[in-house]
Write a structure and sequence with these properties.
elongated; about 210 residues; mainly alpha
Amino acid sequence: MTAGGSSRMYDGRPVAYRRAQRREQFLAAGVAVFGESGYQNSSVTALCRAAGLARSQFYELFENREDLLIAVYDRIQTEARQAVTAATAAASGDAVGLAQAAVRAYAESIGRDPRVARIAHVEVVGVGERVEQRRMEQRALWTAFFEDQMRRALGPEFVPPGGFHTAVTGYVGALLALVHQWSTGDEQTDLAGITEVLTRFLISLMTP
């Protein structure tokens, strides 16, 4: 116990810290195993080997592989939103600058690492009802995120063509599809190209 009696210690560090550290190791292992071998070809044994940890430590943190897949997927989406938020905050205030910053930040966050792109766009599809529900929840978060960004940039009086829900849902669908296409290594698609297409799409929604 510490002097205050509120935190247990193990090997000189709080137990909570060690637990959080092991969770990070398993998340990194999830990216490596799910992103390279695929979720269906993975196993708890392979995940533990990649993390350098024991099976008992895996089950202290996750009930099964699906739990880890969801945790990895959530981390990917959260980091992408953080990247877009930072990029738009640093961009010029006009619609073109904001749109370009948002598209590039999302694409680079998701698509630069082929393993991350594979998990985000392929491995979470068709796993089961719980993962599919999380995928839809994350898409809804992106829709709300871009709607909020547009409202902040354009003011409370602005309404895009078709209304916010329709317009932003369409944009998010196009964003996910094109970034997926680029991240798979399609030689006909480059980052500059999808940035141009998606920027024009977003600007069309932001222009009265």
